[in-house]
């Protein structure tokens, strides 16, 4: 069986262009659904974050009106998984050589810290060069922006990927006063961003890169990763 690293943000707030502080945290489904799928397939899952900080839950992901009727199960699974694991590993002390896949869930945290985290960038460059699986869902693909090589080139430029869309950000009510919009930034950096219908599952595999558009894409992305790991 394989060993998988889930990298979480450490951010609890997202500072807006108007100076306001928007509370954020991990999105329950995007952490729980992949973890459940990976463990169910017999894989070992570790958690890491910048400084080993345990990010709080994004309370929006525990609201059935926002996150769907199944959100309580996702919250319970995520909280138990994190509690059982204990303090997250410190991202700066983690090596890609210890893992077969690196997976990046969302919540708005990755657009606060992970998108420019040099330790994550090093990890992702190492993983991609070794042909290891890299997965990211919803706002998780923001973390891919950290992967800049020694020549200053973004290693995922030209790759096909999905991510939370500008339209979904507007529908969620967080596009106004956002410092930047994820899908637009990915395209500006050279990604071949593709998208499905708002809030409907949509995933893309481009070689070893697996991405999903939104929370509903979490399980399909994880299933695709499991299939790839099983195929060796």
TrEMBL record:
Recorded family membership: Belongs to the peptidase C56 family. HSP31-like subfamily.
GO molecular function: glyoxalase III activity
InterPro entries: Class_I_gatase-like, DJ-1/PfpI, Prot/Nucl_acid_deglycase
Key word Signal present: no
Domain (DJ-1/PfpI) ranges: 30-216
Superkingdom in the source lineage: Bacteria
Organism of this sequence: Streptomyces malaysiensis
GO term, biological process aspect, one: methylglyoxal catabolic process to D-lactate via S-lactoyl-glutathione
Record-given protein name: DJ-1/PfpI domain-containing protein
Recorded GO CC terms: cytoplasm
Keyword tags: Lyase, Stress response
């Amino acid at each position: 069986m394989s060993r998988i690293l889930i990298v979480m943000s450490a951010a609890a707030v997202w500072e807006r262009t108007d100076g306001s502080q928007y509370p954020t945290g991990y999105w329950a489904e995007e952490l729980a659904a992949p973890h459940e799928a990976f463990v169910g397939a017999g894989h070992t899952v570790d958690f890491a974050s910048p400084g080993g900080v345990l990010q709080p839950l994004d309370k929006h992901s525990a609201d059935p009106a926002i996150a769907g009727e199944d959100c309580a199960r996702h919250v319970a699974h995520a909280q138990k998984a994190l509690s059982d694991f204990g303090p997250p590993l410190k991202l700066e002390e983690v090596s890609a050589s210890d893992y077969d896949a690196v997976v990046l869930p969302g919540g708005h945290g990755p657009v606060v810290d992970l998108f420019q985290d040099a330790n994550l960038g090093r990890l992702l460059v190492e993983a991609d060069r070794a042909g290891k699986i890299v997965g990211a869902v919803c706002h998780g693909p923001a973390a891919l922006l950290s992967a800049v090589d020694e020549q200053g080139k973004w290693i995922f430029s030209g790759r096909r990927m999905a991510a939370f869309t500008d339209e979904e950000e507007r529908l969620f009510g967080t596009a106004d006063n956002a410092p930047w919009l994820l899908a637009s930034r990915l395209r500006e950096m050279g990604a071949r961003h593709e998208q499905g219908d708002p809030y409907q599952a949509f995933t893309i595999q481009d070689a070893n890169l697996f991405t999903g558009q939104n929370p509903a894409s979490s399980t399909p992305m994880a299933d695709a990763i499991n299939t790839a790991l099983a195929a060796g």
